[in-house]
Amino acid sequence: MKKRWWHDAVVYQIYCRSFCDSNGDGIGDLPGVLQKLPILRELGVNCIWFTPIYVSPQVDNGYDIADYRDIDPAYGTLEDFRQVLETAHSMGIRIIMDMVFNHSSDQCVWFREARKSRDNPYRNYYIWHNGKPDGSEPNNWGNYFYEGKGSAWEWDETTKQYYLHYYSKHMPDLNWEYEPLRQEVYDVMKFWVEKGVDGFRLDVFTSFKKPEGFPDYPGELGVNGYAQGREQRCNVPGIHELIHGMYENVFSKYDIMTVGEASRVSSRMAPDYVRAARQELDSIYHFEICNRNPAPPTVLQYKDAQIRWAKVVENGGWLAQHLSNHDFPRQVSRFGNDKEYRIPSAKLLATLTHTLPGTPYVYQGEEIGMTNVSFDRIEDYNDQYTVGQYHALMKAGVDEAAIWQKLRPVSRDNPRTPYQWSGGENAGFTTGTPWLKVNPRYPEINLEADRSHPQSIFAYYQKLIALRRDNPAIVDGTFHMFLPEHPQVVMYLRRTARQTLLIVANFSDNSAMVERPQEVTEHQWHRILTNRDDTTPSLMRESWLPWEAEIYELEG
Ligand code: GLC
Ligand code: CA
């Protein structure tokens, strides 16, 4: 495989709204990011992914874009962006932008035009449909936010047709069948590449292509009587042609990286999106492990998934490694233990993410072990998905305690609370009132406290990121999982012709006995990293402590 810059990258995801507020309006902004770039350089990351910072009414915190070629005034100006980009570049940090092309905002000029009349030149940028003979919606699809009555279709009174919206009715879906829309999308991307950005994260790209004929979903309906049926609406035949079209018209012309948000993509389907020969995307991230299922995967499921996904890389594709982002619970709360083992479990999770095949992604706050929140009132929640489901379930008569139990641990507000910079007021995020409540654990968990602690998680991330630079096996090595049936321990090899690394992690609250494979016992190893400094650096030990993680290198 031809080596590209992003193979070596470590990506840091900035959720700008919650990162750092420079002017006291309670909303994070680009001057705030500029101020904090030196810390990211210290951390060692060399790429930033910005969640959408374009002009937006913020129905879905920026994933509803009203102007694809300008910065939202709450975040700053194009000039502020230019400064962030230039400063980041001078520090060796690249920047990739989030591109949302499944839908736009209903405030986007394209949609404001499109809804004026059936023959408006922008009409076909969107998906319009007549109702059924009785006037009801064209089919039984629900919107994913459980908004309003629940349908994915909204009636437009002026032009007497329905338009499609997979998410909010304020986020109408774009019509990828229409050539001028596709050209517009290419132009937007070229606009940003010409500003100097280094790549794109493609939002929900697997739903650009819509099912032919918009058929009713045959499966079970949701609490509100409409079908979620995501699997029917993702990866529809014809999707590959659309992605290849972006490759031909944009990606192939520049030295940029692309990473797709691969909803409902299995490890079997993935190579068709990311093998270089396909000429589609450079990489994707999947949701087999990081998701909102009621229970997190078991260690066995985790390993089974890693084994299968590693094959995607082995076969010439590439992956983003992540356990959390702005849509999912805090990783230490979901997969680790955010109480008595917060520090070692945060480090263990990072050890795995940073040594599996692919490019590691750090979601802001994870490097100091930020945790989930638990607010008491629905008014304190902002996430459309949480709020919509809460009301739909209440309306359906579900017990309120049960609703909270279901929603709290997976709410998208968990990862979106303001960054905890210090133990000061509002965790040092703002001098005003933060747009979303600060996590009450901030006096204990914040960057300042973490960095002054001998067990600093931040310092551990620095070491992991530095290791990646100096150990080619982490980037290029083959992958072999040992002990796939062990219910607690994750143990694998990364190997190139010159270097062999062994990663051992006790992914549990209990100590673990390990029967070491012969390949391990017949060689000499030395430890190059550990998340505990009170254990013997030896693979000959009988047992591993709860949440212990280590990396060894083969001697000789
Ligand atoms: C993606 C984004 C999410 C957003 C949705 C609709 O899943 O990550 O935040 O709500 O797409 O754009
Ligand atoms: Ca601000």
Spatial shape: globular
Overall SS class: alpha/beta
What ligands can be seen in this structure? alpha-D-glucopyranose, calcium ion
Count, helices: 16
Most strands sheet: 8 strands, parallel
Taking strands numbered 1, 2, ... along the chain, how are they ordered across the largest sheet? 11-10-9-5-2-1-13-12
Helix content: 25-40%
CA-atom Rg in angstroms: 24 Å
Sheet-strand content, in percent, reads 15-25%
Number of strands: 20
The whole-number mean of residue pLDDT values reads: 97
Termini distance? 28 Å
Helix-strand layout with pairing:
Blueprint: E1 11-14, H1 30-43, E2 47-50, E3 54-55, E4 67-71, H2 78-90, E5 94-99, H3 109-114, E6 128-129, E7 153-156, E8 161-164, H4 179-195, E9 199-202, H5 230-233, H6 239-249, E10 257-261, H7 271-274, E11 283-285, H8 299-314, E12 320-321, H9 331-334, H10 342-355, E13 359-363, H11 384-395, H12 400-407, H13 447-451, H14 457-470, H15 472-476, E14 478-482, E15 489-495, E16 500-506, E17 512-513, H16 518-521, E18 525-530, E19 543-544, E20 549-554
Parallel strand pairs: 1-2, 1-13, 2-5, 5-9, 9-10, 10-11, 12-13
Antiparallel strand pairs: 3-4, 6-8, 7-8, 14-15, 15-16, 16-20, 17-19, 18-20
Helix pairs in contact: 1-2, 10-14, 11-12
The structure holds alpha-D-glucopyranose (GLC) and calcium ion.
Task: Describe the structure concisely.
The protein is α/β, with parallel strands linked by helices and 556 residues long. It has helices spanning 30-43, 78-90, 109-114, 179-195, 230-233, 239-249, 271-274, 299-314, 331-334, 342-355, 384-395, 400-407, 447-451, 457-470, 472-476, 518-521, and strands at 11-14, 47-50, 54-55, 67-71, 94-99, 128-129, 153-156, 161-164, 199-202, 257-261, 283-285, 320-321, 359-363, 478-482, 489-495, 500-506, 512-513, 525-530, 543-544, 549-554.
